[in-house]
Amino acid sequence: MRLPSTPAAEEHVGLRFLSRPGAHARAPLVVFVHGRAGNREVMWSFERAVPTAAAVVAFEAFLPDPLGGFSWWDFEAPGSKREAIRSASKRLSFALERFVDLEGLEPSHTVALGFSQGAVLLSDAMLAGEVALDGLGLLAGLVPTPEEKPHVIGHPRVLVAHGVSDEVIRVERARQGVELLRSLGLDVTYVEDAVGHKVGIEGTRALKAWLHEVLG
C-alpha cells in the first residue's frame, strides 16, 4: 500500500513523499529519488525489484520544472550548478533523517536509488558524508567530481546502471564515476545496457539481484 504524505508530515520532513510501510520498524528502507521533471510517483516502477518486507519512500523535488513535474535544481539558471546541487543534497539528506524520525524507523539497512538527476544528488550527498547508506544505486546518472576530499560514511556498496546510447548523460561520464568510486575503495557493480536514458533489462535484473544481496 502506497501512502501519500499529509500536510503535517510534509512540514516535518520538508518534502512531499509517497511511502510504503515495511514489515516492522527494523525492516530495510529503500529510498527513491527521481530525476528532472519527475515526481514522487515515477520511481515506483522499480518497486518490483525491492524485497516485499522492506519499507520504501519516494521523495518529490521542490522546484516546478518548465518541462512539467519537479526538479532538484534549476537547469535554466546561468552559471555553475555546484552550489544548487550542494543545497539540494543537504535538503534531501535532512528530509530522509526527518522521515525516519517521523515514522519511528530503525532500519537494519538503508539503500537509496537515484535516477538521472536523482543519482547526481545522492552521489553528491554520499561523497559529502551527509547520508549513511548501506547501498547506493545510480541509474542513468553520473557522479559529480567532488570539490573537497570525499568523506564517505562506512563502506556502502554501489550499483551503477547505464545505457551505452544514453543521449542525456553520456556513458563515458558514468564510467568516470565508476573509476572515482572504486578509487575510494568502494565495492561497485557496473552494468551497461544497449539502451538510451533509461534502465534496460540487464540493468533491472542486476538491480534486483544487487538489492537482495545488500539488504540480506
Explain what the structure shows:
The chain is α/β, with parallel strands linked by helices. 31% of the residues lie in helices and 20% in strands. It is built from five helices and ten strands; from the N terminus they run βαβββββαβαββαβα. It has helices at 7-13, 82-103, 117-127, 171-183, 201-215; strands spanning 3-4, 17-20, 29-33, 55-59, 63-64, 70-71, 110-115, 135-139, 157-163, 188-193. The strands form two sheets. It has an eight-stranded mixed beta sheet, with helices on both faces. A two-stranded antiparallel sheet has the order 5-6. Strand 9, helix 4 (171-183) and strand 10 form a beta-alpha-beta unit. The radius of gyration is 16 Å and the shape is globular. The model has no long low-confidence stretch (mean pLDDT 96).
- SSE string: EHEEEEEHEHEEHEH
Sheet with most strands: 8 strands, mixed
Low-confidence stretches: none
Total helices: the number is 5
Question: Shape, please?
Answer: globular
Distance between the termini: 23 Å
| Total beta strand runs | 10
Strands in their spatial order, largest beta sheet: 1-2-4-3-7-8-9-10
Question: For this entry, what is the oligomeric state of its chains?
Answer: single chain
Proportion of residues in extended strands:
15-25%
- CA-atom Rg in angstroms: 16 Å
